[in-house]
Design a protein that fits this description.
Layout (H helix, E strand, L loop, with lengths): L2 H11 L4 H8 L3 H8 L7 H11 L3 H5 L9 H39 L5 E10 L2 E10 L5 E4 L3 H6 L8 H14 L3 E6 L7 E6 L5 E8 L5 E3 L4 E6 L2 E4 L21 E7 L10 E11 L11 E9 L1
Length: 306
């Protein structure tokens, strides 16, 4: 049996989540996930610690996967292979970029009214959070880019499907049958499941109450920005200077799905003149499954300074 499958079997047998096992080892949860999926393998020290945690011998854990120190020759060979793989990856990325540009140009020619949609599905399953994101053509459902989370991709063999709606239906059906639940977010806007209630509004501050109905764990930071309607479009207003910042602290809803925060912008924007504005807050899912490196979603609420 492969070490990844053996590790998954032992973890489930010992009623441990990926997160709790990661804490015992002092590694990230994603590391445990990659081991179980066979993407990477634990080193000798980590394998010994795993064997100790599960109260099995190293041979029982590793099986035919021999863990050993590499000789100088093996190290040189490994370096050569790594450089070779990097070259292949760079070439593949180049081909993907060219192909994507061709697809986008073709899409624009075929349908002037079509637009690119980014949609994400976040699910809770077996006490853990997983998700998958896709950018696709709204009219044809042709996929432009996919998220990098490998959990659903590998289990459901998603790479063989080329229709965005079909992929989301497959994920949702699998999670529902397994006793989990999912929610879909379009264009990174969480307004359908998270809302902001504004209290005690002044020209320099407000108190907000966040109503969070999400089934997933969403983190809220202190940071925010303010936009104003200009010529029918939302534009971020200019700051009074660059000497400001926010604390890197994450806040979460309480047992009633509520979170209260005080937002003061006097040191950022000064006193706002009359007009129509909206406050925008970036939020983050605990699971890391973005299409690109920016895993930021947002919520917003309009207000008027009279």
């Amino acid at each position: 049996m492969e070490i990844g499958k053996k590790l998954l079997e032992l973890r489930k047998k010992n009623n441990l989540s990926q997160e709790s096992l990661a804490e015992k080892l002092g590694v990230a949860r994603q590391t445990i996930s990659k081991w179980e999926l066979g993407e990477t393998s634990p080193d000798l020290k980590e394998a010994k610690e795993l064997a100790k945690i599960f109260n099995v011998s190293l041979d029982d854990l590793v099986g035919n996967n021999i863990i050993h120190k590499k000789s100088n020759t093996e190290k040189m060979a490994s370096i050569f292979i790594i450089h070779y793989k990097i070259s292949l990856v760079i070439l593949l990325i180049f081909i993907i970029i060219i192909t994507t540009l061709i697809v986008i140009r073709s899409t624009k020619k075929d349908s002037a009214n079509s637009r690119i949609i980014e949609e994400s599905i976040y699910c809770t399953l077996y006490g853990e959070e997983h998700g998958y994101s896709i950018k696709y053509d709204e009219e044809s459902s042709t996929i432009i880019a996919k998220g990098k989370d490998s959990y659903f991709r590998d289990i459901l063999e998603l790479d063989k499907y080329h229709d965005a709606h079909q992929i989301f239906n497959i994920i949702n059906d699998y999670v529902k049958k397994s006793g989990g639940d999912c929610e879909i977010i379009k264009d990174r806007n969480l307004s359908d499941i998270v809302s902001i209630e504004i209290k005690d509004l002044t020209s320099t501050s407000m108190r907000i109450i966040i109503h969070d109905d999400s089934i997933n764990k969403i983190a809220y930071g202190e940071d925010f920005y303010i936009e104003k309607v200009v010529d029918g479009h939302w534009e971020e207003i200019e700051t009074t200077g660059e000497n400001y910042g926010f604390k890197a602290i994450a806040y979460y809803k309480d047992e009633n799905g509520l979170l209260e925060m005080h937002q003061n912008w006097e040191h950022i924007y000064g006193s706002l003149p009359k007009g129509k504005y909206r406050i925008v807050k970036n939020v983050f899912f605990d699971s890391d499954i973005p299409v690109d490196k920016e895993d930021i979603f947002y919520i917003s609420e309009e207000f008027i300074i009279e």
